[in-house]
C-alpha cells in the first residue's frame, strides 16, 4: 500500500499516543521541544527528560509520520484527470470526488504533484 510522510505538531500526550499506536515508527526516535526531550528505545518505550520542576505538557514536538494512502485520505491540493479535462480540488479525498469517468488523481506531496490513483486503483 502506498504511504505518505506528513509533518504534524503534537503535544506530549499526542506524541505518546502516536508512539503506542505506531511502535515501529517510534523506535529509536528522538524528539525535542524547548524544555523537554522524549527518546524512544528499541521497543518503542519513551524516556522523558525535562528541565523544569513540573512536566511541561503544553510544549509541542514536530513529528514526521508515515501513513498509508487510501481513497479516503484528504489532500490539501489534488488534480483529477478525466480524459483531456482536469479539475483542481482542495482539502478533499479521491473517494469524495471520483466519478465513473475519472482516470487519474495527482496529489501535492513534498513540494510537487505525484500520481496517486489511476484507472480505478491506487498507484504504488
Structural class: mainly beta
Radius of gyration: 19 Å
Give the beta-strand count.
10
Report, as a whole number of angstroms, the end-to-end distance: 6 Å
How much strand content do the residues show?
over 45%
Q: What general outline do the C-alpha atoms trace? A: elongated
Helix and strand sequence: EHHEEEEEEHEEE
Please give the order of strands in the largest beta sheet.
7-6-8-9-10
Share in helix: 10-25%
Largest sheet: 5 strands, antiparallel
Number of helices: 3
* Low-pLDDT regions: none
Quote the average pLDDT.
89
How would you describe this structure to a colleague?
With 124 residues, the protein is mostly beta strands. It contains 3 helices and 10 strands, in the order E-H-H-E-E-E-E-E-E-H-E-E-E. It has helices at residues 12-21, 23-26, 94-97, and strands spanning 3-11, 30-32, 36-40, 46-50, 60-68, 75-82, 85-92, 104-109, 112-118, 121-122. The strands form 3 sheets. Strands 7-6-8-9-10 form a 5-stranded antiparallel sheet. It has a 3-stranded antiparallel sheet with strand order 2-3-4, with no helix packed on it. Strands 1-5 form a two-stranded antiparallel ribbon. The model has no long low-confidence stretch (mean pLDDT 89).
Q: What's the topology here?
A:
Blueprint: E1 3-11, H1 12-21, H2 23-26, E2 30-32, E3 36-40, E4 46-50, E5 60-68, E6 75-82, E7 85-92, H3 94-97, E8 104-109, E9 112-118, E10 121-122
